Structure formats: C-alpha cells, structure tokens
Amino acid sequence: MKYRPRRSNPLGAKELAVFTDFGLSEKFARLLFTRGIDSKEKIKQFFDISPNYLHDPFLLKGMREATVRIEQAIARKERILLIGDYDADGICSVAIMYKYLCSRHASTRYFLPDRSDDGYGLNIDLIDKLNERFEPKLIITVDCGISCTAEVDHAKSLGIDCIVTDHHVIPEKTPNCICVNPKFADQKYPFRDLCGAGVALKVVHALGGLETARKYLDICSIATVADIVALKDENRIITSLGLQKLNANSLPSITALAKSCNIHGDIKSSDISFKLGPKINASGRMGNAKRGLDIILEQNEAEIDKIIKHLADYNLRRQKLCNTIYQEVEAQVEHEKLYKNNIIVLADKKWESGVLGIVSARITEKYGKPSIIFGIKENVAKGSGRSIDGIDIVRTVEKFSDMLISFGGHAMAAGLSVAVDRFDEFNKKITDHMNESYNKVNLTSEKLYDFDLEQDEITPQFLSEIEKLEPTGCDNPSAVFMMTVTNCQVGALTNHPIHLRFSHKNMQFIFFNGSACGDVLAYNFPKKVLFEFQKPDGTTIPKAVAKTVIPIPTDAKSYALTLSGYLQDAFPYEPDIKFNKILQSLNADREVFVDYYKFIKTAHGTRAFNVYDLFMKLETLANSCQYNLHQFIFCATVFRQLGILVFNSGVVSIDNAHPTDLFLSPAYNKVREQKVDIEIKIGKNVTA
Questions:
Q1: Are 216 and 202 in contact (CB under 8 A)?
Q2: What is the dotted CATH code of the domain comprising 57-248?
Q3: Residue ranges of the domains in the chain?
Q4: Domain range 337-444, CATH architecture
Q5: What pTM was computed for the model?
Q6: Per-residue pLDDT tens for 32-41?
Q7: Which of 340, 355, 507, 646 is packed most tightly, with the most Cβ within 10 A?
Q8: Contact 18, 43 (CB under 8 A)
Q9: Which residues have C-beta within 8 Å of that of residue 404, sequence separation ≥ 6?
Q10: Helices 149-157, 124-134: crossing angle, 10 deg rounding
C-alpha cells in the first residue's frame, strides 16, 4: 500500500489569489482547493450555510403530484401508512414524515420491517399483512420502493394508492405510481445525492414550506451522515444546520444518547458516523428497528433511559456478531487467497445478513477491493456489498441482474439477493468480470492524504481553520496529514492495552489497535505518522488520532523492528532493496523452525518486551552467533501467533500446549507466498 498526498506543493500565486478575500492561510486554502473548492463562488457557498440555499422541492419529478395526493388524503381523513427501511436513514425518514403528518392531524401509521422476517422494502406478502392490519388508502414508502414494481401493482389491486420516495439507483423499470427520487435523469432538480430522509424532508418542504422543513433538519442531519451520502451542496446545509439544532438540545433524547456515548461538547458529524449512527442502526440490524425510531420520537426521560439501554445492548450484540463473522470471512479470504481477485465474494449459512454490510466494509477497507458478503437463508443468499472510489458497485451488480432476485443501493454500497442454486454462477461471473476489467489496475496501489506537515506548522490559527471544514464525511473528508516523527513517548491504554497513546514533542496521539507499532514508535529512528486532528478540548496541546505508522528504517535495530511489525501486518510498508533482501533470506523450512524453537525455548522466564530485545539477550546468554537476527524474528513472530511464545508484562513464557501447525500463522504464510512470488518473477526474467 502506498500513500500519496492530494497536493504536495503549496498553491501558486494565481491559485492562492482566489482565497485572498477570505483571510485564509495557504495550508487551509490548499485543503479547500484539493476538495474542488477553487473559485470565489464555491468558497462563498461552502462557508455561507443558509436554509435559503435549499433547492426548490418542486423541481423534483413527481413532487407536485405527490403533494396533491397527500393533501387529498389529509383532507379526506384517509389512512396513510408509512413504510421505511430498518437502517438509520429509513428510521429518520419515517420520523420526519410521521412527525409532520401528525402535526397536520393526518390519520397516519408507520411500519418498519423486520430485516430477517420481512426483508428490505416491499413484498407482496407484507402488503397483504399490512392491508389486513392497517387498511390504508395511501402507502408512502421512504428510503425504499423504487424497485418494487410488482409490489406496487399488487397494492393498487387492493385499492391502495402508493407514493414512492427513495434515493437509490433508478432501475430499468420503475413502479407505476407517483415516484420522487433525485436520481431520475429527466428532471431539473440540481442535486442527486440526497439520502432517503433528505427526500422525505423535501416532501415536507413542498407540503409545508421552508420554515416547516427547518423543524426537521436535526433528524435529517443524523440520516445524512449515517447513510454516507456526499456532504456537499444541499447535504452540507442540512447537516450543518441540523447539527446546530441538535447542539441546542432540539432532541433531548439524542442529547441523552450522546452523553451515553461519552460525547463531550458539541455533537459533530464524526460522532454521528462512529457513535450515534451505529447505535440507531443496531436496532434494525438486530431485529427491532422501532427502538431506533423511539429514540427520536420519545420525550419522556424515564423511557429515553430505557431505550438507550436497549440500543446499547443491541449495539454490543451487533459488535460481537460483526467481529465473529469478520474473523470467519477474513480467515476464508486468507485461506483461499481471494484477495488476489479484484472483488471478494463469500457466502455462508451461519452469517446473519443484518450485519454483513459492516463486515463487507471492513473487508473492503483491509484489502482495498470491493466485496460482497452473503448470508444464506431458505435457499436465498442475501448479500451486502461495499466498494472503493472509482468502482460503482450497483452498476457492477446490475450487469448480472438476470441472475438476481433483487438488488439496489448506490455507488459505494449495494444490497442484493440471489437464489442459492445460482450463487456459484453469479460469483464466478462477477469475479471474472472484475478481474478482466481491472487486470492492468492495482486496486490497492495507493491511498490519498492531504499533505505533509512539519510539527512547527501546526499553529492555533491552522487548527481553528480546520474546524471550518465541518461537517466532514463522504466527499468532504476530514483533513488527513502525514508527519515525520522520531522517538516518541509510548504507553498502552490501561484498560485497553491494544490501543496506544504516544507523544512527540508537544503533540499527543491516540492510536487505536496500534499496539503492534509500539516498539517502532518508541525507538529513535524516522517514521511517518498518518493522522487527523481530534476536535479541540480547550487546551493548547494539539491532539490527533493516528491512522497508521510507516517506518523508515536506518540501522540494524530499526530494520529488525520493522520486520517484526511487517510480519504482523501492523503497518503498510513498501520494502526497500535492503528489506527485500532480508525477506528473501528468510527460511520457511520446518527443520529451521525446530532449531530456532529449541533456542527460543531457553527464554522461558527471561525478561524482555519484544523479539529484538529477546534475541539480544539470548545471544549474549548463549554466547553464540549461529542464529540470524531476522530469521529469529520470523520464527518468534510465527510462534507468537501460534500462542507458543508469550510476552506478558515483560516476562517471556513458552506454552507447549498450543498447535505447531505453521500454516496457522499468517506471518508464515505471508513469507512463503512472497518467496513463491519472487521465484516466479525471477523465473519470468530468466525466460525473457
């Protein structure tokens, strides 16, 4: 993996002149410029957050017809049924429409499907059940429905009118009813990237006017961030103003939820992304989306506390389930070497479909490839897919729609289902297509960050300016920088030793899951730290979250520590010539491991904190030079992964009860595979 700055050089005089009137530093101007904010008009629009810039809702195709039909239903006191999705976007969409229609004293009910029992969107059995239960005259779908042609026809045969409000990709055939969707090409609406709740907000905007729509910006901001739509244009306004309302305690239930998530100070978009959104989403993923809706609608403090406890329980169960499935998926990907394909596709009966979107996102993040992970139930494989920049996963899936029962989503995320007896065919065809389409492209070749910073360039003004990027998220990412550090003060978090805190000069970092980088950070040699700043806490000390560490080894110890971290996949490292020679020198023969095991076994009870220090100590005790440092680190890393070699508070122990199958070690397989690849390359060069 390589990291490349979006813009390494400062802006030129002509480029910088655009920002002169706004009093911005060159570095902050560079951040805006690389995000496409490169004219005075765009800069003004970026900073001028006003509800008056929200677009005319009647520019949306079908909006006028939708408002006429809804007004008729209100006037006639017809029963209106809202049907949403079970994620945070669908929940917020229902909340906006329900609160508005109730304010109009409309006869309104809502239904949030059960992910497992009802599935996504409409289905004919569900419509029959809802018709019997609610007897609606009008169904309004929110955040779903654009692919439900047969289902809408069935509802109409029962005498039920339908209005579909959705934001997902427009299929070849759309329902024969009023449809409102910003992605229709044949309309004048200037912004395509509203989420489902954003479309619901525009319906309210059309029905009640701008001031009425403003009442629901807080709810819509939660959905806009949680559904990972582009935070630009109208979405930036919705989210900015919505967060202002939330931070003025417009929804006491969300304020209470934020406190339960240890959110101190103002709620930011990142808090929704990583704390509030997942809690609301967890209710639908674990089978009771209504609790997610309750946290938005409820006003009684005692009930709010109960709901928060339910959401915390759902989220904890969701996390455990996600981790279990992720580990199983990751093991299959490694065992079958699926990371060599340009898309990763897997299915299993044990996997709960409700959390597979999260699992897919983690797999895509790790391997840099699009992925689709399926759960199988009753002869149907239901999958969730996630993608990377430049590959529209819905358009990719759509190429094989003749094999699918259903599909939908947007460029970066898709949901789909396929009959089990066609799964293997689908898997082969989409994998072959991706491998052929991108056979000359390395999808994992690079990731972008903004630019490199020197520590003395981090001024109070610059930190203050960075806050102006908020709200950050999709298409307006948080600013990410690279900085070179040398020796750092490093320590593990007391209750979470897999996380690190480290400081360099007057700057403090937290590094989640960074324990394997502790030795590299602590030793005095250069390494680059990829990071983003944390929100200010009132102190003058800059604080940041480290994303990764990239060592720049210079001496024997730094190469040894880099090898140890590299074998554990602790950081992305592009081997230099010297490091490649080290890798080529490693021996994977079992006899060699037996020999080094006998050597390492003598370390039981020795005090050491890492494999390098252990080697130095053992070599001194043995008074022998027959063991190679790099081979020792390779063997010791494998033994650590197998549970044979354990470092516990600075004391080394050997556990003979653990398995000795070397192929169970990721480090062992990584070295063997790399040596095979090197041999193949050498063979090709000789042949040529």
A1: no
A2: 3.90.1640.30
A3: 57-248, 251-336, 337-444, 480-578, 586-687
A4: Roll (3.10)
A5: 0.86
A6: 999 999 999 9
A7: 355
A8: yes
A9: 397, 416, 417, 418, 426
A10: 30
